[in-house]
Specification:
Elements: E1 21-25, E2 31-34, H1 36-42, H2 46-49, H3 64-75, E3 80-87, E4 93-104, E5 110-118, H4 125-142, H5 147-162, H6 166-174
Antiparallel strand pairs: 1-2, 1-5, 3-4, 4-5
């Protein structure tokens, strides 16, 4: 599936309070399972999702460093929560509050990842949008080589200014 062919639109889709988007991937991020709500919001058919990289729903408004942070947590076998703007196959977008965690087998070996997304706190979205825009602008200004460091510096400074950890910030935003 060529994501470059999808043009983002300004049409926003909204999760319902009862919605839970669930997906599972292998260790490389390839989708091995997606529930009906995931299929609905992504706009893809199940056969288009299965075997695809999970970034098939990545919106270009998302700073790359958010996904680096996610993969860093998962590499340490830690769960992570995040606000993510996803893009549907038709170019529309939807915000989610996601929980991503390693999947362990009976011997405690990591065999994949699960992601459960729910409706984000609507009060948090304007704040997150502004922060992500600053991070994305820093990435673009710095260029590909230094993008992660530039974006990470924006997030790091925000956490320092607020005197909170990443986890604390995310929890506060979701409970505004």
């Amino acid at each position: 599936m060529k994501r470059k062919d999808i043009i983002p639109t300004s049409e926003e889709r909204f999760m319902r309070e009862s919605d839970f988007i669930v997906s599972k991937t292998d260790l490389t991020g390839r989708i091995i399972y997606g529930n009906e709500i995931f299929i609905e919001f992504s706009g893809y058919e199940e056969h288009e999702l299965l075997g695809s990289q999970h970034n098939i729903v990545r919106h270009p408004d998302m700073p790359r460093v958010v996904f680096k942070l996610l993969w860093d947590y998962l590499a340490e076998d830690k769960e992570i929560f995040a606000f993510v703007k996803n893009m549907s196959k038709d170019g529309s977008f939807y915000w989610v509050f996601t929980h991503v965690a390693p999947i362990l087998d009976k011997n405690k070996a990591k065999i994949g990842y699960s992601s459960v997304r729910r409706m984000p706190n609507p009060k948090a979205i304007p704040i997150v949008t502004d922060v992500y825009k600053s991070m994305l602008d820093a990435e673009k200004k710095a260029g590909a080589k230094d993008a992660m460091a530039a974006s990470g510096a924006i997030l790091g400074q925000l956490l320092k200014d607020k005197g909170v950890t990443y986890e604390q910030l995310i929890n506060v935003l979701q409970t505004l």
